[in-house]
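Chain A, query sequence.
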Amino acid sequence: MFRPRLVVRSFTGHIPPSFRAIPVNRTVSFLQRLFWRPSLILDVQNYVVACLVCARNKTSNSPASGLLRPLPTPKHPWSHIALDFVTGLRPYSGNTSILTIVDRFSKAAHFIALPKLPSALETAQLLMQQVFRLHGIPQDIVSNRGPQFTSRVWKEFCAELGAQVSLSSGFHPQTNGQTERANQELEAMLRCVASSNQVTWSDQLAWVEYAHNASTSSATGLSPFEASLGYQPPLLSISEGELAVPSVQHHLRRCRRAWRATRASLLRTAERNKALADRRRTPAPDYQVGQQVWLSSRHIPLRTESKKLAPRSLGPFTIQEVLNPLTVRLALPPAMKVHNVFHVSQIRPVRTSPL
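Chain A, predicted structure.
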């Protein structure tokens, strides 16, 4: 008796977009030796996508979830700042780390040598000495989730100032990419100027900061000095006469022109970066409170004999709160010593199937 066989490439039925990237060809080929049914491919995809063993142990090859969501573009200098630390430096003059403070508008930076990682109170005092007295109180402060920035002292300090606290989500340093990039440039410049004698790195920090603030930023087309002050400070005395300002009004007009040009450049750069980043990403699912998700184990410290044989996903866990379209809070067990706020690229929904 003739028994029709189903070939994968001949199937013309509707396949949900979330299933199209699931590798089921080998499973379908094996089942075709024994069975046939019109919905074989779709049934196999439904079964495979809901397999708990596969979801927990297999690595996904699909693009990262969550389209780029740039931070709001500031309107004037030092209204929105970002903080981070550089650690692991060789001790010199009692200093072992650097606090990086970046103005997200002009890209100006302050690099402050520190003897150790400061507490929340010490960080607040550093900001008052190095930022507030020079540039005023910012509206927003971006940082990672270090202990300095998650403490009650830091939150109450920012609340009293009226500054918003913006913390990055777990294992997603791209949120604070401004200071991450500034730290990369800082470390590269320190390697250059202190290559002959690495222990003198803190002596070179002031010149590294000046070089950073005097160099043209690719995001704004101006140097941080020009974007924040309205002019480029001279490095040599022979160019001192070029800075003569005929009146205060003229200086203010020049500053406003520089700020308008800087903001327009920042908006264009944000649009360009978003378009480039989204080419390698997929839209995030519409997560809901109470939904079950898998959590990537890539950055989670696991107690296992073999890291290679450890599960690639943990869970399933329940979503406690959807903070924004790209960030969720999970209900994690107390034994997991990690922060429970994650970017959507670190999670994926649990699929179910009646099969």
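Confidence is low (pLDDT under 50) at residues 1-21. DSSP finds ten helices and twelve strands in the chain.
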